[in-house]
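[SOLVED] Need 3D model of a four-part complex

Original post:
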Amino acid sequence: MTLLSRIQHTSQKLTAADRKVIEVLLGQQAEAVFLSAAQLAERAQVHETTATRLAQKLGFSGYPELRAQLQREVMEGQDAAARMRRSVSKVADGSYLADLVQSEISALEQLARSIDQRDVDTASDMIFAARRVFIFAQGHATAVSAFLQRRLDRFAMTTVMLTGRGRDIAERLTSLGQDDLVLVLAFRKQPTDYAAIMGHAAQVGARTLLISDLAGPTMTPPAEHLLAAPRGRSGTEFQTPIVPMTIVNAILLTIAGRHEPQIVTKLEELADLFDRFA
Amino acid sequence: MTLLSRIQHTSQKLTAADRKVIEVLLGQQAEAVFLSAAQLAERAQVHETTATRLAQKLGFSGYPELRAQLQREVMEGQDAAARMRRSVSKVADGSYLADLVQSEISALEQLARSIDQRDVDTASDMIFAARRVFIFAQGHATAVSAFLQRRLDRFAMTTVMLTGRGRDIAERLTSLGQDDLVLVLAFRKQPTDYAAIMGHAAQVGARTLLISDLAGPTMTPPAEHLLAAPRGRSGTEFQTPIVPMTIVNAILLTIAGRHEPQIVTKLEELADLFDRFA
DNA sequence: AGCATCATGCAGGATATCCTGCGAGTCAAC
DNA sequence: GTTGACTCGCAGGATATCCTGCATGATGCT
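Solution:
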């Protein structure tokens, strides 16, 4: 039973003080969900007791239950995606494709909420300004890094892949200088060589950019700039590279958009090159 | 100071248990704002104490302060999300990220309409039944194929990558037999070697599967089974691998789901299962 | 192996939050 | 004016929530 219907159902027995409380409760829902009985009462200019008794009048065992109900309602109201997800999984059970699409969509919605365009701008500028871009990725992240590298090459940027282990990376890192950028793609947990690479970058004055998921903020040492968003299905381990892939695409689009003149001509030159080979 | 920046700033001092808590905190923000220290700790599978101490490490006087900070940020974030959703129509404000997310979402919705789960089932069975899977991909499709190969390897399947040009491919194709499957990832236009590969496969009796976009139906000779969906942003030069990537993920999920003792319907349960393979 | 350092869990106390018995005040009916 | 019904606030107890000292165990270094 919804809070509103409970209120209507009990409206005859409500006092003036009760109505004051309800006014705050419904009028400031977004904040009210966090308030204790005393805080709520203070906003409504009534005594704390009134809050407790109102909750009981409305059929709850006490104030905390009332608040929990309000929390549920507010969350559902705002999470339209959740509502959709429920109905879909109910209709199309056994359809992995439909389920997957649904969860990817909500992951993308979450992405838009997690990262601001300004952060993307910063990342784009860092890449565009770099003399060379060293891309570090391991495991599943290589799928994203391969894509990124191809695109940056198209933009006529110089990229260096850091894919192997220890030694291989160290060798390729020797030339790293202060005009270069180290771009790390890492998910789930901090890669073994992460600290060493970041440490070296800091030492030679290279800039650092980390694209990650929830593990991003915990990696140490921290990168100069971080783009991180949860990769779908909070709590579960099932995660696809869709979200980081989209982050990368947003960066690429931004580079293209903000530096259109240069990029476009590079692409045209490339088209000529292709023609000559074909 | 934002919670995220505090986490980054303190990342050196964070323990494994701390990270678990942070994962829940950020991954399930919407719900975490309501949880008590004990409830949060339970979700993160750590002791309540950890929550308290994490809050102090991050510079709060205690857990309640941390939660209050999270509440503030979530509330602001929701305002921001609402603002963004409202201004989605006018993309001119330079928010490439928001625009991109929006178009990816509609591309995914289109995908769910274009491909039926039964087609995914067929593809999954073909892959699972194959002795070896030969994966052919070129250009941007390699990003997807690399991902697919990694996953199939985790399923303990035998994969062979066909990536190079002409000669390289021919050499690796010599062993192709009738128990094998040729899986082609190709977008935009038919790759140069496509016809040769498909021809050879037909000759030796190998099965063929094509994952593609709008160009798929026009490729000749046709593959035995085709999974194709438009990749959004029709007409634009910039196309992302999100849709084919999601097709591949659906296939992988289906394989995992159909060949596991227990029949699982929920994606949550599948996630665990999938993780066991991954 | 031995030691130091640190992370983690436990137990108990401190605090915040909530509930309830009691009484003062208000109002209307008689 | 008295009574009764009701609202509201207070105070104290009950409970939930949180914090901290201590012990244990893990880890790493010498």
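Edit: Chain B has two domains: 3-86, 113-277.
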